[in-house]
## 1
Amino acid sequence: MTARSATSSPARVQGTEVAVVTGDQQHDPPSRREEQQRELPPGEVVVGTGRVSAARRVIPVLPTLPFSRSQLAGIDDALALATRRAGLNFSVYLGELGDETRARAEELLDSLGTQAATAVLVAVSPGQRVVEVVTGAQARHRLTDRGCKLGVMSMAAAFEQGDLAGGLISGLRMLAEQTDPPPVS
């Protein structure tokens, strides 16, 4: 980042170009600077040129994730095991679902494209306190509404205890256990 004003000139320091900025304001008499100092909040000062120099604390906003690495690994393992055990494509969505939670969950299922027919989507909106389980056209023949309700109940019990990751893991296990075996060809 380079500071620039109306009057600036580059200077060379050990082969590096550095912008040197000069102030355009006239020097204020010391009495005026003292008057300005009294009006400034802490961390600010009027320098000899009359310019205000301010020090601010910058606290970086780091993105926070809802899960630790080990929790993510557990959820990933649960997804892989449920998919392998049931022979269906299990997916999890965590986030806001809007006013029409069921319709939004169905849109998310449709966004899975060619996998949507054999998919089971678990959509969780913690802020709304909503869990939707949506099954694709082929998956709904193997995972009944009763099985979905059991999965939601196991998730809700953990969610009430504040264990989001544990709820997803137990819910995925329950859904996989409730899935009927694939039809024999």
## 2
Amino acid sequence: MGASDRRQRHREQIKADILSAAWVIAAAEGWQAVSMRRIAEAIEYTAPVIYEHFQNKDALLAELAAAGFLQLGEVLAQAIEGNHSPREKLLRASLAYWHFFVTRTDIYEVMFGFGAASRTSAVAQEAVDRAFTPVTDALRFIVSFSEDHRLYFREWWALLHGLAALKKAKTLPVETTGDGAIEYAIRRFIDGIGA
């Protein structure tokens, strides 16, 4: 292995350490506590080293958000594996989305910018599009040819993300955000498609 390969591997390791440190800080203190200086202290480098890898905090968070959407995409794809009807696939993907929110709130927060700036970037948008392919594919088979599945996708996402935001804000009574209540809301949405 040449010196160039070693430098590249070292650079990749520093970037991985930066991302890991950001997760650790956020898990302990919330995303507002994540700063380039705090990350630099955590990995025992100076702040300029962090800026060699990420232009600013928003660029760092956008990369973390993109990674979150890739994880969500894997969860959704796994949820619909098997021989299921399109409506069952949509239900399974919906419940997997909710479970992801409930069990990976730290990732969900950075993906959707709860309490922080929006994480829009070309990389994050591409990851969003890929993540939701299982859902849009299921919707294509459910809606009639005269209807636009993208409209139903936005409604589906608004339902789930809206419930997630309300749960996060502790606006809804606990019994309305339990798994049974969520499944009921999702089933009502699915039953209404094409009705």
## 3
Amino acid sequence: MSDMNSPFIAAFTVFCYLSASGLIAARLFSRAASEQIPRLAGLGPVLVGLWGQAWLLYQGMHLGDGGINLGFSNAFSLVSWAVLVLILFSALSKPVESLAILPLPLAALAVVIEATVPSSHLFPPDASWALRMHALFSLLGYRRWCWRSRTTTCTVTTPAASFAACRHCRPWRPCCSR
């Protein structure tokens, strides 16, 4: 990495990811409602860590002559970053931040590996478009994004007959268990 601030940013990103993982785990396993940590307290460090990791990825992957460094450490960091971005965007509308308890320490490990282990697998600037598309879809294939249908009906015996009128159901759960 070419910048002198990179070790500081890497350490701060690792701190953000590990503290966010601890906060989310503490929120998940807290018993009393009065002791519960707010959702945004766990998601805030994730967002700051994602910015730091994106900066480190840009510094580590972008080469001046138009080439891209897709070595192991950079690819591992890029995939972990993409997984966390998808979890963060999902957590903005659904309470799924507990899914990030394991990927956050793995992303911290990816940042440490990216900062300490040099990788040198260069993607040539004159590569064909087919090779570029292959690399793009290979990296995106690590995380599948699937949407559930929102057209199911609720099986709860309530006066409301439709899914939209049921106050127990949420859009991310086709039917509640009550």
